[in-house]
Specification:
It comes from Allofrancisella frigidaquae. GO terms for molecular function: phosphoric diester hydrolase activity. This is Phosphatidylinositol diacylglycerol-lyase. One of its GO terms (biological process) is lipid metabolic process. By secondary structure, the protein is an alpha/beta fold. The protein folds into 2 domains: 136 residues, Mutm (Fpg) Protein, Chain: A, domain 2; 311 residues, Alpha-Beta Barrel (TIM Barrel). Helices cover 24% and strands 27% of the residues. The strands form 4 sheets. The protein has an 8-stranded parallel β-barrel with strand order 10-11-15-16-17-18-19-20. The chain has a 5-stranded mixed sheet with strand order 4-1-9-8-7. Strand 12 and strand 13 form a beta hairpin. The protein starts with a helix and ends in a 5-residue tail after the last helix. 40% of the residues are buried.
Amino acid sequence: MEYKKTKLFGVLFMSLFFSKLYAGSKGSELCIINQYSQPITIKRVDFNPSDWENKNTQIRDNFQGKTVLEGERVCSHLELNKSFWSNDVSGPYTMYVETGNDDLLKFSTNQNLAFNSGPFTKSISLNQASAPGDSVFLVGSEERLSIYIRAAKPDNTNWMEQLINQNPNLLLNQLIMPATHDSGVYQSSIRFSDNPSISEVVVSSVARKHPEWYFTNDLNITEQLRAGVRFFDVRVGMFNGKEMALFHQNYDWGHGYGVSFNQFLEEMESFITTEGKNEVIFLYLAHAETNESSSSTIKAIDKKEMISTLKSKLDPYFYKQEDGDSLRKVTLSELKGKIVPLLNKRELGTYIDSKDGLWGYVGYPNISPENYTIYDKYSETASPKTLVTDQNNKLENFGGLDNYYWFLYSFTLTGEAGILDIRSLAARANYILPEQIHKMSQSEMKKANIISYDFVNAWQNKQIIDLNFD
């Protein structure tokens, strides 16, 4: 009997050893998103079956042979074997993707990137030198690996000039443009007050350790302009109580500040006088840190000083009318080479004057034909499913072109306990956005005038811009 037990143990041990010490599996999601401007086909997937649960061929079965139309995606849940000793997983594979112009993109990666401790983005090297750079771009977050297949980086510097040449009588309510959320708070600009007020001491000490809770973009202002952004979310506050700067407020943890207001305006001037001289830029001054909107512990901006600074930097480029009270009947071509500040009537109403080129707007829910109105109602959710349902319902009820107001499609998620990192939130939402824009292009859903999302890029912006040229 003793011999039989030993033999049985030996058989079990050898079985474990030769089955790569299988210790259960770990699930993740893989999505392939097409931003190539043409259909793509996943021709082949090379992989080792022993890396996957029960030697499964799911990565081949769910992806190989699939054709993905522009703006669409194919996704699948995948189970990787855990290591018996460490619970680590590894699932390398190579994909061969054929594009609509017969280019073959061959690349290799590992599904275990989906389990990185924090979100990441990176370009992946291709196995052939002839393919354009940035053809394959990875975004990993929260057990999902999103792989964007992209054409060569588009040049969106002069897209409005092209649109004006094609349709000089285009009214603003027929315009569609990409927008940034909290435009002036990007990764290289983030900073926190050196002298927080008493009530901010604790929250500021926490916030300093987590700048990722605040910055909403990788691109600086000039890079955003070159990427095609023409609608900027401008929130002006007081950094250290003495310098006007753009900010992003986290209601639980205080303020994070970005680029100075002066630098922001200087970059606008530089663009509109050089490479963007035939473009139009809209500055959406929606959430100034005023006495009415700020807590008593945060020094509010001086509204008069803010407007004075705005005018001193950009006045020559403002669009002015003697008796204008609305932009509703203004064509895009009339605004060529101009910067249009849109002031919130509730906070900055006393400074609105068309003769000075300072235009007002009324935001949701005060929609009125008498005022230039922007329907801007974000979803306040960390759930991408809820975001899509909520924004698409609003779009169906209030969106479309040719209204007496602009509809802002707010495709941004709001942090909650356990997920405050904006890059992670953007990864949750952005892989879904191309499909929504594709549906707009196919008239499967209404179009929006302004499409705002975090961590903008030239490829996604190009898909939005192309809605104007359908």
